[in-house]
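Re: the request from the purification team.
They wanted to know what the chain is likely to look like in 3D before they choose a buffer screen. I agreed to run a prediction and write the result into the notebook, where they can find it.
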Amino acid sequence: MGNKKKIIVIGGGVSGMSVGIYAQINGFDSQIIERHSIAGGICTAWFRKKYRFDYSIQWLVGTKEGAFHDTMCETGIIDDSTEIINAEIHNRNVAKDGTDLIIYTNLWKWEKYLLSISRKDWKAISRLCRDIRWASHLRPFDIAPAFRTPLHYFIAFFKCFPSLCMAALHKGQTYTEYIKSLKIKSPELEKKILNIYGEGNYSAYAFLLIMGWYFRKNAGYPIGGSLGVAERMQKRYESLGGKFLFKKNVEEIIIENNVAKGVRLSDGTIIDADYVVSAADGHTTLYNLLKGKYRSSKLDKVYASWKLFTSMVQVSFGIDKDLKTDFNIQVILAEGEKIGSTTLAHNYRILNYNFDPTMAPEGKSCIIIRYDSPFQLWEKMTDEEYKEEKKKIEEDALKILEKHYPGSTEFVEVCDVATPKTTIRYTGAWKGSYEGFIPSPKNVVDQLDQKIPNLDHFYLAGQWLFPGGGIPPSVHSGKWAIQLICRDEGKKFVSK
């Protein structure tokens, strides 16, 4: 090992583990430094009295095919033992008047369902479903942008032509603008479809992509959820000789003559390296770990103007009763209602993990309520205010649980409240944002560079490079980081 170049990876989430896995495969000596006691970052879960409360995965793009799928197989996210569930119903949206909209993962079935609501809107429905089908043809690149040649783009043009047409037509539209452009005649149907996404400025193209992935059965759920993904990646990394350093915080990236030389931990320990890859969020990396020395007007603009996914509160219930349901995900439209001190901007979600036996003992249920809660509400709370807020949230969440599952509250064995402060404490995510930047018409096709100008032997990885975030691009970015380091070292990159 003495002749191997050493790579230090900051952050043991899925992007950091991806960096480490590909580093080991390509003959480097890597070490991942993680602030938490377990790997996974935001892709995680925790146990309370034999219940497992998942914080991340509801569905995972790349479970069937494509470059994302290949990368997941290479990093251990999906292996021969991984069971993938493709539910017939993705989710149910419930309005305040009790009416609902069911989103089927079979697009033909969904089209028939929409027609049953408004036959006179067959042209609008047909166009919507056609656009979704066309968008589904997108195929992500397997290689970093720095290695793409005109030939790569030429081939992609023909393979992804329908999706690229959708990008050209709709990337500048918001979701709301796109739905309005369909000219739906039925006010009822238009309202139902507009309510699929509460965030009106969400990119229309991003919406079409997501629906397309459902349709292709390429966005399934891996049994075992987020923790299962993290554990498989950790096993893969350590089997290749990679090392973790848990419960340690990186205080500073050490730079000499504009070359990354290692890191300094909060306890003063200095760890030398030939390369440093930060898989922490971009804001923390640029403005804290690098002390703002390599900021640029472009990056300053991004972090000042790109909107973040709002931080989240999660209330998890362990219930001594089998609460079966036809709808694993329900989105309850509740704009203006309050949970604790949060006035809901759009909705809350109810997740029933009845389909995953790893989440609760047999005969019992794990149900999770999630809602967006602005970070500003939390950042200046005193300890006492924080305790009172969590108590009030629990009380309100129990009322919601009883409303949707009458009689269930008397069987509640565990109630766990996780807040934006919880997210920050365990992951360090900037402003508690669990998925980075929202994809908007202005940034949906953008991607931040992994290399920072004027800084050598240093790269970025993780979901903060891509508006929309999530596990698939995060894992991809780890692969790309090692491709770039291999180029620096004059080595041929290998993926297995």
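For the purification team: The chain has 15 helices and 22 strands.
Please add any questions underneath this entry.
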